[in-house]
Design brief:
It is built from 20 helices and 7 strands. Strand 1, helix 6 and strand 2 form a beta-alpha-beta unit. Among the domains are: 276 residues, Vaccinia Virus protein VP39 (Rossmann fold), CATH 3.40.50.150; 68 residues. It has a 7-stranded mixed beta sheet with strand order 3-2-1-4-5-7-6, sandwiched between helices. Helix content is 54%, strand content 9%. Helix 8 packs across helix 10 and helix 17 crosses helix 20. It holds the Pfam family Methyltransf_32.
């Protein structure tokens, strides 16, 4: 009840007076408690997906545990959505170094374009794919070895008594070897059993089984080679040299055969260029007005995905999806809420700008805004704190005291520069302050060590207050995230061409705190 929860604050001073009630209210308004999420299991069941990727591809061999968890869960969902919508092309927005993109391509044979605004990320994606090619050859060899072992086990996994009858039948056949008609009669009698798989089958097919084993192995090797080579094409042609298992003397071939082989090679290259299971890293900055067809020249019916798209990029992904008829589905997991642009934060009228928040008309009509502090709080990880991964209180304390110093000693209250990860590189508070001042382009020579330490001593006794304050922010974090995510969901609900949209908890929040995906699919006619 809103009236009950409001009593957590003093009516006159508006100060917090009941921490327990505050925590209960925050829990009540969290996404997990509101009942608006669709369980991932229900979504997968509705999509009736049972697709399986290439055997042997394990994401944990190519990325850390967090990224492996995210990629494996999200790629399975994306593949099911793609199958449901009947599409093979995926556009990965904010693809970074291509973790999700390459896995979607390798595991699910989807044609993926990874678009990132950073050239260094795109180059990193190319380098990562070069390494994946190297490992994929190992997978190919491992698959061949496993196939031979499995086939031999199946061949040898026959009843022991078959060997006994095999000897008896062999003697009969040898005795009747001079008479083909008699031999055929014996064989036919044993090949029409009264029931079950007979030992005669074993004898007659033993030689064939060995031959078939070789043929099947070669066939499977060929299939593996085709799949592997298709996946190896995620890189430019000059990134890796593909060797043939059969070598021949080119000089000994006749001109006609040379020409035939040349034409076959050209056809193979043409086929590879149009195969579906390729990954293309591209560099481009995505906005709400971006024309994907200008970036992806062979754009077809596709779906858009984004794994931890930063700030406004998550909102723009949804806007592009709603506006472009060729994009049939979207699966977007946002992050970095503190980087969202807000239309009403500074109460500035700017009709032409496209804002990250709010998206839906309902919140726009109310002029709703969060503010940077609230958005920063939304990035905190309550579940991690709950299992003992405490907040970095000391680094937060350093940062808070630094702000007092630059305001009082330098008169600076606002700056476009950032301190960044200075704490981890600093040996002491004095070192931290001096490093930070240099990053902020402030002269640290006017500030003696004694003065810096005076500030530290002045506020040291308030460190517990800072920790308590940050814990309250952590408790409130899910409520602010709810507002941002529901705004995005409401925006999709307002669109006329959307068949279904929902919020789905994809990841373990301890492993991956930004764990909610905004998913939508268009009507078939769209």
């Amino acid at each position: 009840d809103d009236d009950i929860f409001s009593s957590a604050f003093c009516e006159n001073s508006e100060k917090l007076i009941d921490v327990h009630l505050f925590a209960l209210a925050a829990k009540y308004y969290s996404l997990s408690n509101l009942g608006v999420c669709t369980p991932l299991e229900d979504v997968l069941e509705a999509l009736k997906g049972n697709s399986q990727g290439a055997a042997g591809v394990r994401p944990d061999e190519f990325m850390n545990n967090k990224k492996s968890h995210e990629v494996q869960v999200m790629s399975e969902l994306v593949d099911n959505i793609a199958n449901y919508c009947g599409i093979k092309q995926v556009i990965d927005i904010g693809s970074g170094k291509g973790y999700l993109s390459s896995f979607l391509s390798m595991q699910y044979n989807l044609k993926v374009y990874g678009i990132d605004s950073s050239n260094s990320n795109t180059n990193g994606a190319h380098e990562r794919n070069r390494k994946l090619k190297k490992h994929w050859r190992a997978y190919q060899n491992r698959g061949r070895a496993n196939l031979k072992i499995q086939s031999l086990e199946k061949t040898n996994d026959r009843p022991v008594e078959s060997e006994i009858k095999y000897k008896t039948i062999k003697e009969e056949l040898l005795n009747n070897a001079k008479s083909p008609q008699s031999r055929d009669q014996v064989i036919m009698q044993d090949l029409v059993p009264s029931g079950g798989f007979t030992e005669m089958d074993t004898f007659e097919t033993r030689t064939e089984t060995e031959a078939d084993l070789v043929a099947q192995t070669k066939s499977h090797e060929g299939k593996l080679s085709e799949e592997a080579l298709a996946i190896l094409n995620v890189l430019p042609a000059d990134a890796v040299e593909v060797f043939s298992s059969s070598h021949c003397n080119w000089g000994e071939l006749c001109e006609e055969e040379k020409m035939q082989r040349k034409m076959t090679s050209l056809k193979t290259k043409a086929t590879k260029s149009s195969e579906s299971n390729l990954y293309f890293p591209l560099t481009s900055c995505i906005t709400a007005e971006t024309e994907l067809s200008d970036i992806v020249t062979d754009l077809e019916d596709c779906m858009m995905v984004g794994l931890h798209t930063c700030g406004d990029l998550a909102a723009n992904t949804l806007r592009i999806f709603a506006a472009k008829p060729e994009i049939k589905a979207v699966c977007s997991v946002g992050c970095c809420y503190h980087l969202l642009s807000e239309q009403f934060e500074n109460q500035e009228e700017c009709c032409d700008k496209v804002w990250g928040f709010p998206m839906c008309q309902y919140l726009k009509d109310k002029g709703w805004w969060c503010g940077r502090n609230a958005r920063m709080s939304a990035c905190l990880a309550l579940e991690r704190v709950a299992v003992g991964q405490m907040l970095p209180t000391e680094s937060l304390f350093y940062r808070a005291v630094l702000q007092v110093i630059i305001e009082e000693m330098y008169g600076v209250t606002k700056s476009d520069r950032h301190v960044g990860k200075t704490f981890s590189k600093s040996s002491s508070f004095i070192d931290y302050v001096r490093r930070s001042l240099k990053k902020l382009d402030l002269d640290d020579s006017k500030l003696p060590d004694r003065c810096i330490m005076d500030y530290y001593e002045k506020y040291k006794h308030r460190m517990n207050e800072l920790e308590a304050f940050n814990m309250l922010k952590v408790v409130l974090a899910p409520c602010i995230e709810v507002l941002i995510l529901l705004d995005r969901l409401c925006y999709l609900k307002e669109q006329e061409n959307i068949a279904w949209s929902g919020l789905v908890k994809l990841f373990d929040p301890v492993k991956s705190p930004r764990c909610y995906a905004v998913i939508a699919m268009k009507e078939e006619s769209c």
